[in-house]
Design goal:
alpha+beta; Ubiquitin-like (UB roll); 3-stranded mixed beta sheet; globular
C-alpha cells in the first residue's frame, strides 16, 4: 500500500509540474502576443542595401522608433518596399529593441543585347521588351520579354523562332541581358479551305479575306502570315459579305489553323453555314415623335421590296433617316429596324421605328492603339466631339471613314459609362498597319507620234499615305525609257485648314526624244477637293506648264530617210504643224480646271460593283499662250455577272472636245488616242493625218469611245497569285482638226473597233495588265499595235 501511495504521489507531482509548465507556456505566448500587438522598438536597422539609401528605406517602412506597431504595420511595410520595384526580397524581424529590415536589391540592367536577329531590327525588338538599360532586372520580366520576342516573330510569320535568354553578371549588382534568337524559316500558309459554301466558290471567298495562301510573291505582300486576330477580322469580313448578299442566317461554324511542324506551314479551315437567301418584303417607316411625318421619309430608304436583302442597305437607310430627323431638330432621335422574317417565301420585312432616344452626351473620346497616327487624324473623321449628343449613326459613319483611310488593320468603336448616368466615353481601338507604298510598273508601245514616243518604259514610285502620322499623302515617281524621262512629286493634305477639303500640288518634268526633234514639259498643279456627298466630290485646280521643242541638230539632213516634204533645210522632215510648234517654243499653258467625280466602287483596286465617273472642264488662257476650252468625261460601270464564278462585267464610255478660244490650236493641243481610248492601235495611231507626211497623225478635236469587258478568274491558277483574265471589245472615233498651216487628209468621223483578250495581275508592284487586241474596223492610215503592256487601272 505504501509503495502504491508513493507511486500515486509521484504521478500527482508530475501532473502538477506538467500543468504548471503548460500554464507557463501559455502565459509566455500570451505575453509575446501582447508585445507583438503593441511592440515598441528603439531603432530600425537596414541591411543588404547597396544603392538605395537606408533613410529612404526607413521612410517606406513607416514605423517610427518609440511608437507602437502591430503585425499589420509590418505587413504594410513589406508591401510598400516590394511596391517600389527595387527589391527582389524583403524580410522584417524584431531583435530585442531593434527592428531589422533585411532587403535584397534587384540587379540593374546594364545592356539589353539581341543576337542572331536579321528580320527584325534591334530598335523594334527593344520597344517590345520591358527590360531596359538602367532599369531593374527580374526573372519574371525576363520570361515575359522572351514571350514578347516570340510573339513579334510570330506576327511576321516565323512561328518556329527560338529565343533563349542569358544573364551575364558584371559584378556590383549589374547584369547584361542577352537574347539569343534563331529566327528560323517563314511559317507559310499552305492552304485555305472553306467547308459548307455552295453559293460562292473558294476563289471568291478567298478574295474577301485578307489572309492569303503563300506564293512566290508572299514575301512582298506579307499577306500569308497567320494571326489569330486577323482570322477573327476575316470572319467578320465573311459575315458582312454574306449579309450584304441576302444570306441573313449566315454563320461561321468554326475556323481553325493547324500547324504542320514538319513543313512549318498552317492549313486554315473555315466551316460555314450559308443558310437561305432572302429578299426584302414590305418596307415601311413608323414614328412616335410628334411632328415627324413617317410617310414623307420613305423616299430616303435604300431598301426596296423584292430587292436582295442587304445589311448594308439597311445601315444606309438608318443613316439617311437619322440625318433627316436630326436635321429637323430632334438631336436624340433613334432609328431602330425591326425585321420580320418569312421562312416560307424567304423574305424579310423591315419596319424602321423612329423614337425619341435617351438624352446621352459624349463626355470623352479616348483613342487607343495609335502609336504612329496622331490623335487629331482620327478625331477629325468624327462629326461629333466631347459634349455633343451621342449619335450612333454618326459614330458608325466615322468608323467607316477610318476604315477607308487604309491606315489601320482593324477599327473598333465602343462606349463605356461616363461619370454621370447621361454621359458615355467613346473608346476607339485601332490596329495600325504599314502605309508605305512601293510601286514598279512597265509599259511597251511601238508607236511614236507628235505627242508620244514608243518603246519600253518603266516607272517606279515611293509613296506614303500617312506621312509622319499626320494623314498626309506624299509620292515621288521616276520613270522613263530609251527616249523618255519622267520625274514627279505629289503632296496632298486631306484636311486643309482643319476642314474636310483636300489641298495639294504636283510638280513634274517630262522629256521626250523623237526621230527629228526633242520635247520637254515642266509643269505644276495646285488642286483643291471638296466632298459634296459621300459619293460625289468636286476638284478645282490651277495648272501651269512650259513646253519646249527643238530640232535634233545632231542629225544631218542627209541621214534622214527618204520621206518627201522636208520643211526646213538641213533638218529631217517634220510636218508644218510640228515645225510651227518648234519655232514658237517655249510655249506656256496657264489654265484652270474643274472636275466632278462620282464614285460608288466597292473596291478601287479590284472593283466588282459600282460606278466611277469623271467629268472635267479645263480653260486655258489665264495668261500664257494657250487659249482653248477642253471638255472630257469618262464613266465606268462594274457589275458582278456571276456571284458563283466571280465574273465581272464592265461597260465604259468616254468623250472629249476642245474648243479654240484664241488664235488657233496647235497639234499638241489635240486629243491623241491611247490604250484607255481604244486598244489594238498605236498610241497616236488613228485620226487625221498630215497631207505632207502621211504617217504623221495629227490628233483630233473630238473623240468618243466605248468598251465592253468581262473579267474572270483563270481556272487552275491559285487565286492568291492575283491573276485574272478578260475579254473585251473597244470602239472609238477621233476626228476634226483645224491646226493653222496644216491641211489634213481627212477630218471625218470614222469609227474604229477592236476585240481582244487580257491578262490582269494584281502584282506586288501595282496592278498590271497585258492586252492583245485585233482591229476589226480600221482606216488605211491607221497604225496597228496588237500588244499593250501597262498599268491595269483604267479610270
Amino acid at each position: 500500500m505504501k509503495a502504491r501511495s508513493n507511486f500515486l504521489s509521484a504521478v500527482s507531482a508530475a501532473a502538477l509540474m506538467a500543468a504548471m509548465a503548460t500554464t507557463g507556456s501559455v502565459a509566455v505566448q500570451l505575453a509575446a502576443t501582447a508585445v507583438a500587438q503593441a511592440a515598441v522598438v528603439n531603432s530600425i536597422d537596414v541591411r543588404g542595401n547597396r544603392r538605395v539609401e537606408s533613410e529612404t528605406i526607413r521612410n517606406y517602412v513607416n514605423i517610427k522608433p518609440g511608437q507602437s506597431f502591430s503585425p499589420a504595420d509590418v505587413d504594410e511595410a513589406v508591401k510598400s518596399l516590394f511596391g517600389t520595384g527595387l527589391f527582389s526580397d524583403v524580410r522584417i524581424n524584431q531583435a530585442g529593441s531593434t527592428l531589422v529590415v533585411q532587403v535584397e536589391e534587384y540587379s540593374i540592367v546594364n545592356q539589353v543585347i539581341f543576337q542572331g536577329n536579321k528580320k527584325i531590327k534591334d530598335a523594334t525588338l527593344a520597344q517590345g521588351v520591358q527590360l531596359k538599360p538602367r532599369g531593374t532586372f527580374s526573372n519574371t520580366t525576363l520570361d515575359t520579354d522572351v514571350a514578347a520576342i516570340r510573339e513579334s516573330y510570330s506576327r511576321i510569320g516565323r512561328d518556329d523562332a527560338v529565343v533563349n535568354a542569358q544573364v551575364v553578371d558584371l559584378g556590383e549588382n549589374r547584369v547584361n541581358v542577352v537574347f539569343e534568337i534563331q529566327e528560323g524559316g517563314r511559317t507559310k500558309i499552305s492552304s485555305i479551305n472553306f467547308v459548307g459554301n455552295n453559293a460562292f466558290g473558294d476563289r471568291r471567298l478567298t478574295d474577301v479575306i485578307s489572309t492569303k495562301r503563300s506564293t512566290i510573291f508572299s514575301f512582298l505582300f506579307r499577306d500569308d502570315v497567320y494571326d489569330e486576330d486577323r482570322l477573327r477580322a476575316d470572319e467578320e469580313a465573311l459575315r458582312r459579305f454574306y449579309y450584304n448578299r441576302g444570306f441573313a442566317d449566315f454563320r461561321i461554324v468554326s475556323s481553325s489553323a493547324e500547324l504542320d511542324e514538319a513543313n512549318n506551314s498552317y492549313a486554315i479551315t473555315v466551316t460555314l453555314d450559308e443558310g437561305e437567301r432572302y429578299t426584302f418584303g414590305d418596307v415601311s417607316v413608323e414614328s412616335t415623335i410628334e411632328g415627324v411625318d413617317a410617310q414623307s421619309l420613305n423616299s430616303l430608304l435604300e431598301t426596296r421590296t423584292g430587292k436582295v436583302y442587304s445589311a448594308e442597305d439597311v445601315e444606309d437607310s438608318i443613316v439617311a433617316l437619322t440625318e433627316q430627323v436630326v436635321g429637323l431638330g430632334y438631336a436624340f432621335a433613334e432609328v431602330t429596324p425591326r425585321g420580320d422574317r418569312n421562312f416560307e417565301n424567304r423574305t424579310i420585312s423591315v419596319v424602321y421605328q423612329i423614337d425619341q432616344g435617351a438624352r446621352t452626351y459624349i463626355e470623352r473620346i479616348e483613342i487607343r492603339g495609335n502609336s504612329r497616327t496622331r490623335d487629331f487624324v482620327i478625331r477629325r473623321e468624327f462629326d461629333i466631339s466631347e459634349g455633343d449628343a451621342f449619335n450612333q449613326v454618326l459614330v458608325q459613319r466615322a468608323k467607316r471613314r477610318l476604315e477607308r483611310l487604309d491606315y489601320f488593320t482593324t477599327v473598333n468603336v465602343s462606349t463605356v459609362p461616363g461619370s454621370q448616368p447621361d454621359q458615355v466615353y467613346l473608346v476607339i481601338d485601332v490596329v495600325e498597319k504599314a502605309t508605305g507604298e512601293l510601286s514598279i510598273g512597265a509599259g511597251y508601245s511601238t508607236g511614236e507620234t507628235a505627242s508620244s514616243s514608243g518603246g519600253v518604259s518603266v516607272e517606279g514610285s515611293i509613296g506614303e499615305r500617312n506621312f509622319l502620322g499626320r494623314g498626309q499623302y506624299i509620292k515621288v515617281s521616276v520613270g522613263g525609257g530609251e527616249d523618255s524621262r519622267d520625274y514627279s512629286f505629289s503632296f496632298t493634305e486631306p484636311y486643309f485648314l482643319g476642314r474636310r477639303i483636300s489641298a495639294g500640288f504636283d510638280i513634274y518634268r517630262r522629256t521626250r526624244e523623237y526621230d527629228y526633234y526633242e520635247a520637254a514639259s515642266t509643269g505644276a498643279t495646285v488642286r483643291f477637293g471638296l466632298p459634296i456627298t459621300e459619293a460625289l466630290t468636286t476638284q478645282l485646280a490651277y495648272n501651269y506648264v512650259q513646253e519646249e521643242y527643238e530640232y535634233d541638230d545632231s542629225i544631218d539632213g542627209d541621214e534622214c530617210p527618204g520621206i518627201p516634204g522636208s520643211i526646213s533645210s538641213g533638218f529631217c522632215p517634220v510636218s508644218s504643224a510640228i515645225q510651227n510648234a518648234i519655232e514658237e517654243s517655249p510655249w506656256v499653258k496657264s489654265s484652270v480646271s474643274g472636275s466632278l467625280i462620282y464614285n460608288t466602287l466597292d473596291d478601287f483596286k479590284m472593283p466588282r460593283e459600282g460606278i466611277y465617273a469623271n467629268f472635267t472642264t479645263e480653260v486655258a488662257g489665264i495668261g500664257g499662250d494657250a487659249q482653248w476650252v477642253k471638255l472630257t468625261g469618262r464613266a465606268n460601270y462594274y457589275h458582278l455577272l456571276s456571284e458563283q464564278y466571280d465574273i465581272v462585267g464592265l461597260l465604259s464610255g468616254g468623250a472629249g472636245h476642245v474648243i479654240d478660244t484664241g488664235s488657233g490650236l496647235r497639234v499638241f493641243d489635240q486629243f491623241m488616242n491611247n490604250d484607255r481610248m481604244i486598244r489594238g492601235f498605236e498610241v497616236g495611231g488613228i485620226g487625221p493625218t498630215s497631207s505632207q507626211i502621211a504617217t504623221d497623225h495629227l490628233g483630233g478635236e473630238t473623240y468618243f469611245n466605248a468598251t465592253a469587258e468581262a473579267q474572270f478568274p483563270i481556272p487552275v491558277v491559285p487565286p492568291s497569285l492575283g491573276l485574272r483574265g478578260a475579254v473585251f471589245a473597244d470602239a472609238a472615233t477621233l476626228y476634226g482638226n483645224e491646226v493653222e498651216g496644216v491641211d489634213p487628209n481627212t477630218t471625218d468621223m470614222e469609227w474604229r473597233a477592236s476585240v481582244g483578250v487580257s491578262l490582269l495581275w494584281a502584282s506586288p508592284f501595282g496592278p498590271l495588265r497585258i492586252d492583245y487586241a485585233v482591229p476589226v474596223k480600221k482606216e488605211p492610215t491607221d497604225e496597228v499595235e496588237n500588244f499593250n503592256f501597262g498599268i491595269s487601272t483604267r479610270f
